[in-house]
Amino acid sequence: MDYRQLSQEILNRGKEKFQDLEVFIQNSKEIEIRVFKGEVDKYGISESGGLSLRGISNEKMGYSYTEKLDESSIDMLIDEAYENSKYIDSPDKEIIFEGSDEYQEVKIKPGNLTSIPAEEKIQFLLDLEREALGMDKRVSSIQMCAYQEFQSERYIMNTKGVDLSDNNSGAFVYISVIVKDGEDTKTGLSYRIFNDFNEIDYKEMAKEAVEEGLSLLGASPIESGSYPIVFKNTVFSDILSAFGSIFSADQVQKGLSLLKDKIGKEIACDLLTVVEDPFLANGFYSRSFDDEGHKTMYKKIIDKGVLKTYLYNLKTAKKDGVESTGNGSRGSYKSPISIGPTNVYVEKGDKSLEELISSIDKGLYIINVEGLHSGLNEVSGDYSLSAYGYEIEDGKIKRPVNQITIAGNFFETLMDIEAIGNDLEFSMPMFGYVGSPSIKVKKLSISGE
After folding, report:
1. How far, in Å, CA of 369 to CA of 447, rounded?
2. Which domain holds residue 299?
3. pTM, whole model, 2 decimals?
4. 406 shares its domain with 259
5. Residues 115-155 pLDDT 10s
6. Cα distances (Å, whole numbers) of residue 414 to 70, 205, 274, 345
7. Does one domain contain both 307 and 390?
8. Cβ contacts of 205 within 8 Å, gap of 6 or more
9. pLDDT tens digits, residue range 281-333?
């Protein structure tokens, strides 16, 4: 039985107990490969997925789900959702969506990941590891050399006429090298995000990782104080991603975001524009519809420093009397509807990284931060993160710096942006697919020696 046939049968049988019903099917496949010392250390393929049913009975929404996608699950799904609806007591009226008038096509360049043999992916990692180890005698070992690939598909059908499906795929490859000079040990990193295997070059990645590690040898703390800062593009994207929930209408409505009542007001420097683009070519989260079947849309969340919109699903949009922004999201087919971004990025500016650095007499270039899970408060905006990078003196990189902590407030940092680079880059998908150019900030508090 195919998805459409199964879904239609569930909707037909469920009409006796429900006014409206929705079937949501999600399947995903992940491949993970790691090599270590010239051998395959891990090769794993994991598949997951299932079907969830939502139904409205007596104005209450009931839920059920199963991993078994066949006809034998139908009666169980309907009965469980119906029983569940009797005990749901929420003041918010749940919605089964009737569908959008039109859906914009997502134009993604076809990837070739599934057509590349596993042997070729393994050989790429072996070549990457070997190349990095042979680049410099101070490269002592490879901490991690890994490849991860995903494929996913979604299907939504409901009694109001929605019948939508899509699929997506992508991969990233990552290497972390350990370099040593006497007792001094440092790491260097390099990664790529892609959906075309031919776009990645192992020699380029190995060189990038080794050069970063070597450049950090001899690092020491800087004197504590307040310094102008340049954030590496991927560092600022990680910080922006970690604070992403402040733009969620659900968090705003619950009083968990300081952006409440800030629509139309300046919340950042006028250089800053933050975009959500669900149609981004080759974006990891590009999609024409959200997990409620609502159309997605390009939007500027912040436009030249002014907050333009929150991110809405149907329930939160109804509360505020606005249209959903197409950000209804489910962590999995088992999860309730929440709010999630697609592809979010800071629009690039007109300065090169070299120009940002050359504009600082004495400051820091931060290339990595740690503690994003625990070192920040999304409600207050405060953050305190261990970091490393380079000291800048007279507009030039002077020396590597480590064992420092940067501390500030995210909302103040947005106001203190002085310049934006032209080197837009997306970071590895940890909190979402978020990108940024390098960012120069007026000053931050640094704890060092």
Report:
1. 14
2. 219-449
3. 0.94
4. yes
5. 999 999 999 999 999 999 999 999 999 999 999 999 999 99
6. 51, 32, 11, 14
7. yes
8. 128, 173, 175, 190, 191, 192
9. 888 899 999 999 999 999 999 999 999 999 999 999 999 999 999 999 998 99
